[in-house]
Design a protein that fits this description.
With 224 residues, the protein is α+β, with helices and mostly antiparallel strands. It has 6 helices and 4 strands, in the order ααααααββββ. α2 packs antiparallel against α4.
């Protein structure tokens, strides 16, 4: 069948050239069949169209068989089937470990020391810790006992009392935040003066003074 088929005549009838693709052959064949079919032309159908249609179908079947056997149409070059492309795989590469900087640990240590120093400074200036090394401003172990209110305290006792001179107060407490002849302010705490001598005070727990109590004790009643 393949040896007797006139493929050149088939290409001429379909308006194709040797070397066309099988898809082009199929489309052209179907279009030509629709043109020659008696049902389409009706009463105007040519009796010879049936013979042409039969010859065309025989040529198309022979070309299809040739294509199945050789992988090409008669008169065309052999086209080997393409090998399937390997499926691309998306592989996520693990992120490379970033080497730690040699100075990172040192910087963290310095930052920690700076924060600790800042907390200590705030505690000192806020009066949380007494300068003698204890909380609450009470006398530390080994500190001299508080002087009685009737006895002016001074630098020798380490405590401020009624009658303590302003110079001794400055030596014990340092420079006040606000100062005038009648009163020195040390944050929330204050010391009042009368003629250059301590006459009253208030020692806050937030910034305790070097005194025996938050306020001076009331004066003892005079004995007859």
């Amino acid at each position: 069948m393949l040896d007797k088929a006139d493929f050149f005549s088939l290409y001429q009838q379909l308006g194709l050239k040797p070397g066309c693709t099988f898809d082009e052959l199929k489309v052209a064949y179907r279009r030509r069949v629709a043109e020659l079919h008696p049902d389409r032309r009706g009463a105007d159908a040519d009796p010879a169209d049936a013979a042409r249609l039969q010859e065309l179908t025989a040529g198309y079947n022979a070309a299809s068989a040739f294509h199945r056997r050789y992988g090409r149409l008669p008169g065309g070059l052999h086209q080997a089937p393409r090998a399937p492309m390997p499926r691309a795989t998306c592989m996520v590469q693990p992120a490379a470990a970033v080497p730690a900087r040699s100075g990172g640990g040192r910087a963290r240590r310095w930052l920690g020391l700076a924060l600790a120093g800042g907390l200590v400074w705030l505690a000192w200036n806020g009066g949380v810790f007494d300068r003698g090394g204890e909380v609450g401003g009470g006398p530390a172990p080994g500190r001299p006992a508080a002087a009685t209110p009737s006895t002016p305290a001074g630098a020798s006792t380490g405590l401020i009392g009624i009658g303590t001179a302003a110079a001794t107060v400055r030596a014990l407490e340092g420079r006040p935040v606000m100062e005038n002849p009648q009163r020195w302010d040390y944050g929330p705490s204050w010391i009042a003066f009368d003629d250059g001598k301590v006459s009253d005070w208030y020692s806050s727990k937030l910034r305790p003074l070097k005194v025996a109590s938050a306020h001076p004790p009331p004066p003892e009643p005079a004995t007859r």
